[in-house]
Amino acid sequence: MNLDSTEKSDEQIEILLSDALEKYGYDFTGYSRASLKRRIMRLYVLDQFVSFAEFRYKLRTEPGYFKRFLEQITINVTEMFRDPEFYKTLRKEVLPKLGTYPFIRIWVAGCSTGEEAYSISILLKELNFLKKSLIYATDINSSVLEKAAQAMIPLSKMKQYSENYIASGGSENFSDYYAANYSLARLNDDVKAKIVFSTHNLVSENSFNEFQLILCRNVIIYFDRQLQTNVFELFDNSLEKFGYLALGSKETLDFSTISKKYKRLDSAKIWQKIR
């Protein structure tokens, strides 16, 4: 970054992040600095800026470029039925209990390009609960949400997704859920009909509904301890009693301020709210 020292680069990154907050309302205060810095430096090199001042000017004056900045520094790694054992637990232990409710509301927070929301939709369909369900899929990044809403996935990924689906206990023909369209797979309309995609910032926005299941997998890991605490409290305020909270494989509710209200299911990173 044309930088004299680590201290200088840290200072410049803080300036960029305060610009993001001031100009566009995106607050990265509680994000892990190491991974943010790594991704910002990568973008700086990738886009061949000659100085930090040029980088900052472009970010402040071009909303279109800020969109790219956001795409590059937020983590968007996802796949359908990722971690099949997790989905097996949802299929066998969690969703059948939610099926006793007259209506099921699910929040997929940090949904990225939507593969997780579509996976949940397929599970609900196979259990005959989809008609009485609504899935809210949210992310801070509007660009990935636009992709998610198109329900188009590279055909090259579908073999892996099909294997994940079978390993998660799926017994239907996975290819029945999409139509091949040249190099893309287009998911069927009924798979996406009950999903609402919307921007939501876990850092600065409040609860917007009451849910029986919240999934936020592999997002919390990028937050510092204080922000994790705030987000867990947001989820707690958004979850009905006896509802479920699902986290990623390296994340835990243990040691959090709300942990005493929850009990963990034996077989997965899923906690049930018991008080």
Describe the structure.
- This protein starts with 5 loop residues before the first helix and ends with a strand.
- Strands 6-2-1-7-8-10-9 form a seven-stranded mixed sheet. The chain has a three-stranded antiparallel sheet with strand order 3-5-4.
- The chain contains ten helices and ten strands.
- The chain has 275 residues and is α/β, with parallel strands linked by helices.
- The mean pLDDT is 91.
- The protein has two domains: 6-73, no CATH class; 84-273, Vaccinia Virus protein VP39 (Rossmann fold), CATH 3.40.50.
- The protein is globular and about 55 Å long.
**What's the number of helices?**
10
Range of strand content: 15-25%
- Unreliable spans are none
Mean pLDDT, to the nearest integer, reads 91
Question: Can you write the helix and strand succession as a string?
Answer: HHHHHEHEHEHEEHEEHEEE
CATH-scheme architecture of the largest domain: 3-Layer(aba) Sandwich
Q: Calculate Rg over CA atoms.
A: 20 Å
Q: Please describe the biggest sheet, giving its number of strands, its sense, and whether it closes into a barrel.
A: 7 strands, mixed
What is the helical fraction, as a range of percent? 40-55%
Helix and strand content put the structural class at: alpha/beta
What is the global morphology? globular
CATH class of the largest domain: Alpha Beta
Q: Provide the CATH topology of the largest domain.
A: Rossmann fold
> Distance between the terminal alpha carbons, to the nearest Å?
50 Å
Number of domains: 2
Quaternary structure annotation = single chain
Number of strands: 10
In spatial order, strands of the major sheet run 6-2-1-7-8-10-9
